[in-house]
Design goal:
single chain; alpha+beta; Endonuclease III, domain 1; 4-stranded antiparallel sheet; about 10% strand; globular; DNA damage; Alkylbase_DNA_Glycosylase/TA
Amino acid sequence: MSGRFAPRAPLTTVPTRPDLLLTLSPLRRGPHDPTFRTTPDGSVWRASRTPQGPGTLRVAARGGEVEAEAWGPGADWLLARLPALLGADDDPTAFVPRHKLLLAAHRRRGGLRLTRTGLVLESLIPSILEQKVTADEAYGSWRRLVRQFGEPAPGPAPDGMHVMPDARTWAMIPSWEWHRANVDGKRSATIVRAARVAPRLEEAAHMAPPEARRRLELVPGIGPWTSAETIQRSNGAPDEVTTGDLHLPGIIGWALAGDRSADDAAMLELLAPYAGQRHRAARLILLSGRVPPRRAPRLAPNDIRAL
């Protein structure tokens, strides 16, 4: 089924109107992500592959309410899960700031909600692409693969929007196309393994976050960094802090203790007072803009296509 669906507003199941872009921005993989777009009228557009098929969703804030339209076979699925996407399952009142920085960030970012997509693969695959490379490299790979192997977003989506490939297509991408997309053999093999067990991985969206992460980490090549980055988005997990990140421990160490040399252990110790809300605390620190001054050059991009 495809076609136009009338706006659904107001959404009384959304407890308070979220800041749409702030809440949904973790789902955007770079400024040119073909699955995510913002338009001058303030709308946020997403193209997703749902259990019912591809769908396009447009959400916008209008006069204190949230309105939505959806198109494609996945339209009803997207509209039914819109409240969770906008943070209806999230409880920001559970967060109690214990540092001045976080108190100020929490007040300043009062519209922040933790999104819950209910879709695992759409966050897992770009997270795998982001392993051990620069963000720009990963964004470029995601953009090329989605445009080449996905399909145009249903409905009147902005030009260039695409739905990501289905699991079977991901598993069938030839080795030379991964190379052309600047994806090395280790990451491409991990994506293929994940795609082959996609139904089992999608079940993780309905599990408690720790159990969901264990399910993902059964796939070789998926470790704690990747599982946390995925479950934060698919499950709206407020306590799943990312470990194994090159920069995050130093940022949190600098923000909370003036220690730019903090490692994962030190980061987790600093975040211990926020047990149950550690991911939210980390997100607010990143949004605060308080980062240590850079001393070393950024990680250099690695273009394997030249090899």
